[in-house]
Amino acid sequence: MNFTKMNAEKQVFIGFVLAIVIAALIRLIEMTGGIPSLFEHLLYFPLVFAGLLLGPRIGALAGLMCGFLLSPLSFSDSMISPDEIAGGWILRLLAYTAIATISGIVAAVVQDLVAAEKSAKFQYQGTELPNINALLEQLKSIGQESDGSANELVDIFNFRLQNLEKIQQQIGTEKANELVKQMAMQLKKLLGDQLHVGQTSKNELVGVSADADANTKQLQQKVESFLSQPIVVDGVSYQMDSAAGVMRVSKDKLKDDHEKVFDEAQSHAFNAFQKNQQFSFLEQNDAIDQIEEVTFSRQFSEAMKNNDIQLYYQPRLNTNTGYFSVLEISAKWVHPKRGDMNLDEFKPMIEEASLTQQFTSWVIQRTFKDLRTWQKQKIIVRVSIDITINDVVDPIVLNVLAHELQETKFPARNVYIEVSERALMSMNDKSKRYLERLRSVGCNVIAAHFGEGRSTIQSLFVLPVDAVKLSEELVQKATSHSDKKRELASMVKMARSRGLTTIATGVNDRAKLLLLKQIGCEELQGSILSKSLKKSDIPWARIR
Q1: DSSP code for 294
Q2: How many CB atoms lie within 10 A of CB 535?
Q3: In which order are the strands placed within the sheet that holds 242-250?
């Protein structure tokens, strides 16, 4: 409880009660013969409460006053023992003051921690803008204010920053976050103070306004004009390739199911982006006719639950033994309308819907389910799992992996964790600590997609990695340019000298296969060696 946020009546009441308790205890000490007394120790309880409820300053004042009231300055000498007169009362005064002050400080620290945790729950990491949880709470609050009138309308804006990732590679994560925050501020200025702007994914801003603009044409002109203007950060202009979707609903509909409305708005915006529309507006009545299909989030969750998404395993060749040594995990989705979709095809959709954490955790759990089956069949296998399909090392995903290792007792040395180069360079301290802990129990960490970012091979030597996986782009360039071939050979040699295993992907023709064997790449993966296979088609006889 924070006393400073109470109303005046509660403040007076709590202070009055504590004052009565303290006065009664002091009177009791006086009636039972003075100091020392068993009852003097009971004063610690109201002083602790004073510190916890009223804060360290008022607690310290209460302790100081109690100390003086039980000192020779207030009690007669006949009621205080000689030892107390000599200086014991000073120690008691200090003890009373200290215990109340410490209680107040502890309460303040706990309040700050709770506030920080609450803030983290409702803020998007990096930009500190309101996240999806905060926006849902805002929608819920708006819905509860509804009086049932159909005239009370709410606009839900969805802004897709389509080239943000490219800009981030050029200017860095910190500057990109500033760019997003600046855009959010300008949107609020453009569309009014009633607009609540938040961030639901790294390239998506969502706004909620309870003050819907009646003139939709004017609203469209405002938004399109804004999207065409560059965003200025520190004097540098950045032209954003952005698109916007707006859905208008009644407050009454939010009252019934605000989460469903939010999903519908996301679905509408996503469909507009798929059609390359810069601006799309959906009226409330249109929503009844047009948004009856299942939202992507629900559709994808059901697909995972119903096994419409299946794991596939692509063997990786060990060039030293000539056998396949590792199975890399991928996934395919049998979509009801689009047919078979590879991970690269539906990856943008799950990123858009902020489902990467859920999907990656599901992949890990399903992989270990298969591993349990193979363990029972006495099959020894190594698996490689990409945990950063959105270039973020998520501690929750790492925790899921650790839990599965513990539950299945599967040898950690047979698990390869693929982390993208970009994710390795930008992971926070908590993620790094979790990754290092998994590595310490035997897991192998692979710096994946190396060559897609701006890192050098030397920069990997200070990171917790055991292998480097070369990007398809590096391999492709090396087959057609002699200087790129020398650079790649030098990378492989340098990595091996530091004890890092080198892996190449995208080996889809004989020229690449011969080149990579020639320069000493230890593990190869690609369609010329083996495509991704269902678990029933894995060639166990060729795996060592």
Answers
A1: P
A2: 13
A3: 195-201, 204-209, 153-161, 242-250, 279-282
Strands 383-386 and 324-335: parallel
Count CA atoms within 13 Å of residue 166 on its CB side.
Answer: 8
| Mean pLDDT score, 511-523 | 92
CA distance 58 to 52: 10
**Residue-level length of the chain:** 544
Bond from prior residue into 36 cis (ω within 30 degrees of 0): yes
If you ran DSSP here, which 8-state letter would residue 130 be given? B
d(CA 217, CA 258): 26
pLDDT at residue 38 tops 70: no
Question: Which residue, among 507, 434, 506, 499, has the nearest Cα to 467 in the 3D structure?
Answer: 499
For residues 396 and 415, what is the distance between their CA atoms, to the nearest angstrom?
A: 18
In sequence order, what are the beta bridge partners of 281?
A: 246
Partners of 383 in the β-ladder: 327, 415
Reported as a single tens digit per residue, the pLDDT across 210-248 is 877 667 778 888 888 888 888 888 888 888 888 888 888
List residues bridging with 468 in a β-sheet: 447, 502
Q: Quote the tokens at residue 83.
A: 């030892």
Report in angstroms the alpha-carbon separations of 100 from 22, 95, 289, 451, 516: 13, 9, 64, 59, 71
Do 319 and 538 touch, CB atoms closer than 8 A? no
Do β-strands 523-524 and 501-504 pair in parallel, antiparallel, or remain unpaired?
A: parallel
316-335 in b/e form (b: 16+ CB < 10 A) is bbbbeeeebbbbbbbbbbeb
Helix, strand or coil for residue 103? helix
The answer for 341, left when phi > 0, alpha when psi is -120 to 50, beta otherwise, is beta
Maximum C-alpha span of the chain: 105
User: Could you tell me if residue 500 is left (phi over 0), alpha (psi between -120 and 50 degrees) or otherwise beta?
Assistant: beta
Tens digit of pLDDT for each residue in 320-346?
Answer: 999 999 999 999 998 776 778 888 888
Please say whether the beta carbons of 188 and 195 come within 8 A. Answer: yes
The β-bridge partners of 313 are: 329, 533
The Cα–Cα gap between 20 and 5 comes to 23
- What's phi and psi for 333, nearest 5 deg? -115, 120
- Comparing CA positions, the residue from 450, 391, 449, 426 lying closest to residue 201 is 391
3-state class (DSSP) for residue 66:
helix
Residue by residue, DSSP assigns 246-262 as EEEEEHHHHHHHHHHHH
Say if residues 123 and 129 touch (Cβ distance below 8 Å). yes
Residues forming a β-bridge with 250: 153
Q: What's the rounded mean pLDDT across residues 477-506?
A: 89
Mean pLDDT across 177-192: 90
The mean pLDDT value for 107-116 works out to: 81
Helix (H, G, I), strand (E, B) or coil at 232: strand
Tell me which amino acid residue 432 is.
K
Q: Hey, which bits of 319-363 come out as E strands?
A: 324-335, 339-342
Mean pLDDT value of segment 297-304: 83
Spatial distance between the Cα atoms of 354 and 261, rounded to a whole number of angstroms: 17
CA atoms in the 13 A half-sphere facing the CB of 34: 15
For residues 304 and 520, is the Cβ–Cβ distance under 8 A? no
